[in-house]
Amino acid sequence: MIAFLWTLTLLSIIATMLIGLYGIARRPSLVKKLIALTIFGDAVNLFVVALGYRLIYPVEPPILPEWEKGALSNFIAHSVDPLPQALVITAVVIGMAVNVLIAFAIIQMYRIYGSTDVRNLRRKLPEILREGL
């Protein structure tokens, strides 16, 4: 039963990643691309956290216990890996900063060119290049 739930969880994470990639590649609106990028990034973070999880019961947090005989070997066998958690915390902060930067660029494009549609911006590209950035 545990293996089935674990497989179902991983498949749903991968499906969410594919939905995010589809939104990035196929949606013409930059706002929708930003939303898809956020969904993709969150799914990747969830996948990395899932990689650090152990399928051993009981799972313990990665906090060193008081010194007792055999406590260290039990800690190593049952605690989750803290490295993916630390990497995900860093990725969340960096992802938030990147999303804010992209959102600012999208707002500026809308203010200057009047559209967030990539197709309209592509048609206006010769004008944009003539005017200079």
- Derived structural class: mainly alpha
Distance between the termini: 58 Å
- CATH domain fold name: Helix Hairpins
User: Strand percentage, roughly?
Assistant: under 5%
Order of helices and strands: HHHHHH
What is the name of the CATH class? Mainly Alpha
Number of strands: 0
Point out poorly predicted stretches.
Answer: none
- How many DSSP H or I helices? 6
Shape: elongated
> Over all CA atoms, what is the radius of gyration?
22 Å
The total tally of domains equals: 1
Q: What percentage of residues falls in helices of 4 or more residues?
A: over 70%
- Specify the biggest β-sheet: none
What integer is the average pLDDT?
89
CATH architecture: Orthogonal Bundle
What does the model show?
- The protein has helices at residues 2-26, 30-51, 71-78, 82-113, 118-123, 125-131.
- The termini are far apart.
- The longest helix is centred in the C-terminal third of the chain and has 32 residues, at 82-113.
- The protein has a single domain (1-132), classed as Helix Hairpins.
- Helix content is 75%, strand content 0%.
- With 133 residues, the chain is an all-alpha fold.
Keywords:
single chain; 133 residues; mainly alpha; elongated; ubiquinone
Summarize, please.
It is a multi-pass membrane protein. With 133 residues, the chain is mostly helical. The chain is 75% helix and 0% strand.
Which secondary structure elements does this structure contain, and how are they paired or packed?
Blueprint: H1 2-26, H2 30-51, H3 71-78, H4 82-113, H5 118-123, H6 125-131
